[in-house]
Design a protein that fits this description.
198 residues; mainly alpha; Tetracycline Repressor, domain 2; 10 helices; 0% strand
Length: 198
């Protein structure tokens, strides 16, 4: 096993993140983490202090990676609404491991909730970033005439984020692709046809 000075902290955090993502916090044991990270148990404790300390850092890494991914999808789409559609559709039509393991943030929220202040704060900050990015996309879509001008961008962003979470939970719970795809389509229709006094 590598000594603390011999391992790449970012790399081992990504490996730990994958383990927590697949199994959850409580079900992940130290042996599985040590094996996946390729470092000794003492090295792990020296670097991260505890399983919880490791999890908090891994969750922060996940939030950062997800924020970059969301921004990339929205920024590279041919139009703002197309970016939102891509986000929803990609979750709805995911398959294999991407579908069954869900989202680490959502998994953590359902497992731990607000019982741990530090975890709750990390999740809250991630949600705030996602809402801000989605709200900016909604505003851009309104400016281009893709969405109703009177649509509340913040409320719409919260709606899209909630649908994204719901799709991930449904997919993880075994919903068929056809079912989640229909939900995504209805969500997009709801955005396009929001009442003018929304």
């Amino acid at each position: 096993m590598a000594r603390p000075s011999e391992f790449d902290r970012d790399e081992v955090l990504l490996r730990a993140m994958e383990v927590f993502w697949c199994h959850g916090y409580e079900a992940t044991g130290m042996p599985a983490l040590v094996e996946a990270m390729g470092i000794g148990r003492q090295s792990l404790y020296n670097a991260f202090e505890s399983k919880r300390g490791l999890f908090l850092e891994a969750l922060k890494v996940y939030q950062s990676e997800r924020a970059k991914s969301l921004q990339k999808v929205l920024g590279s789409a041919p139009s703002p609404l197309a970016g939102i559609e891509t986000l929803l559709t990609s979750i709805a039509t995911s398959t294999g491991v991407a579908r069954t393991r869900g989202c680490l943030s959502v998994n953590t929220a359902t497992e731990i909730g607000v019982s741990d202040d530090e975890v709750a704060d990390i999740l809250r900050r991630g949600a705030q970033q996602s809402k801000a990015d989605l709200a900016a996309a909604v505003e851009a879509a309104k400016a281009q005439g893709e969405l109703p001008a009177a649509l509340d961008a913040q409320a719409a962003a919260e709606f899209v984020l909630t649908v994204m979470r719901g799709l991930r939970v449904s997919a993880k719970a075994g919903a068929a692709v056809s079912e989640t795809r229909n939900v995504a389509r209805m969500a997009l229709a709801a955005l396009r046809h929001a009442p003018s006094d929304s």
